[in-house]
Amino acid sequence: MNASIVKLFGVILVLYALLFGFTSYWSVFDAEGLENNVANKRPLLEEQQIERGPILAADGRTVIARSRPRGRGGNRIFVRTYPLGELFGNPVGYSFVERGRAGTELAHNDQLVGNETEFISIIDQLRGQVQEGDTLVSSLDVEAQRTAVDALGGQKGSVVAIVPQTGEVRAMVSVPQYDPNEVQSSAGFQALNQDPDAPLFNRATQAGYQPGSTMKVVTATAALDSGEFDTDSVLNADSPKTISGVPLENAGGQSFGDIDMETALTNSVNTYWAQVGEELGTDTMYKYMDRFGFNAQPPLDYPSFQLAESGEFGANGQLLGPGSDQIDVGRMAIGQDKLNVTPLQMAMVVAAVANDGELMEPRLWSKLIDTDGREEELDPERQSRVMSDETAEQLTSMMTDVVNEGTGGAAALASDQVAGKTGTAEIDIANGINQAWFIGFAPADDPRIAVAATVERTSGQGGTVAAPIAQQVLQVLLANSSEDG
């Protein structure tokens, strides 16, 4: 055979193999990514002809998202509307041909358009059945969501509330909010994208904040559960103390002398907890941080591009490992150094303590109802065993003292005991600008709700700014859970 023909044949084979490989990758291995690509309008155009299932609040009645028909006959399409406007912009998101999908609308797209499996969809079409989407009952509580928004009072920040035993997210608030109905128009979407306050950015799952003293709950977990410390462990907590070669002070420069762990948490003593972090070391600290879900995307039913990791970040924006020489473990232990966390992460931390040391995977859905009325309820899944029951009990006792006797008094409830921890990260010391936090759960002896609340760039403290917000959300959700029971 002519050598030129052989070479041409070989080139054709290689090109065919490449074509086959890329086609297989796009259609099989990366099918989901291709479908979710905003630039790929084909799935969205096709789905316009399907009555997308509604998204309901946790009460199973209140409509968060629904589809409305437009046109008639073969020209009929369905367009998404959001009756509650901006209240659930984050986290429910949107679904429009012009803009693609985001939030819960994207994460649960297959259920909402009735794509159970490709095979079932083909069989339905052959039978002449019209494809319809399932109803998604979310875990979100309308009253708690509205209460959190009102309590933030226009301050930038976030609130996340979780049922510790199931992982159901009862509230996920990000302020500033946005109205998903405005996303459909080019002008509305452009205005939202150009807004310097970034309302499309879900602060609950994407923002990285210094956690301040709320991180001491993680440090206390590692100290107690590892067996290296107990609640009676005494350290000298004078101020300042040299940590990693640099002086560290307590709030107001106060010296506490020799104190035990309970006193150190109640009064949020920096020098005590920084020494604990140094003695534990990065390996032990990272071991427990990993158990809490740090250093990885949370397993929330939410688009991955809208989920940020929590952990220690270097100058290049990359997560640092326990062996990095850039880590100041003493300051990390008190929520400083290069540590950034999401509000969702800190809600998961306190939920694990509330659930006897067991962390459940967070979820934004509670139930699916198909077009025949069949229901599929959430089956809670354990993410990790973070600590022993005994450690969780010890932490609960100490966190109860924080609310009763320490910095978290503004989170107290008249009817139920709250266990919690405040945090005030000094992000601009010269101008007195802080990141204020409160994490907690209630009732302390039989937890039903865990919450994390944070306020950006405030002159206030965690105990005065964030704790009252958490208190209001806890009060509403506890009342609602009692009614449901």
Query: What ranges have pLDDT less than 50 throughout 5 or more consecutive residues?
Result: 23-32
Largest β-sheet summary: 6 strands, mixed
Percent range of helical residues? 25-40%
Structural category: alpha+beta
Can you walk through the features of this model?
The protein is of the alpha+beta class. Helices cover 37% and strands 20% of the residues. The protein has helices spanning 3-29, 31-36, 42-47, 89-92, 103-107, 109-112, 118-126, 142-152, 186-194, 203-206, 216-225, 261-266, 270-292, 329-332, 343-354, 389-405, 462-484; strands spanning 55-56, 63-70, 77-81, 94-96, 100-102, 135-138, 157-162, 169-175, 235-236, 241-243, 246-248, 258-259, 311-312, 339-340, 358-360, 365-369, 375-377, 382-385, 419-428, 433-442, 449-458. Strands 3-2-1-6-16-17 form a six-stranded mixed sheet, with no helix packed on it. It has a five-stranded antiparallel sheet with strand order 8-7-21-20-19. Strand 16 (365-369) and strand 17 form a beta hairpin. Helix 8 (142-152) runs antiparallel to helix 17 (462-484), helix 11 packs across helix 13 and helix 11 (216-225) runs antiparallel to helix 16 (389-405). The longest helix is centred in the first third of the chain and has 27 residues, at 3-29. The radius of gyration is 25 Å and the shape is globular.
Give me the secondary-structure topology.
Elements: H1 3-29, H2 31-36, H3 42-47, E1 55-56, E2 63-70, E3 77-81, H4 89-92, E4 94-96, E5 100-102, H5 103-107, H6 109-112, H7 118-126, E6 135-138, H8 142-152, E7 157-162, E8 169-175, H9 186-194, H10 203-206, H11 216-225, E9 235-236, E10 241-243, E11 246-248, E12 258-259, H12 261-266, H13 270-292, E13 311-312, H14 329-332, E14 339-340, H15 343-354, E15 358-360, E16 365-369, E17 375-377, E18 382-385, H16 389-405, E19 419-428, E20 433-442, E21 449-458, H17 462-484
Parallel strand pairs: 1-6
Antiparallel strand pairs: 1-2, 2-3, 4-5, 6-16, 7-8, 7-21, 9-12, 10-11, 13-14, 15-18, 16-17, 19-20, 20-21
Helix pairs in contact: 8-17, 11-13, 11-16
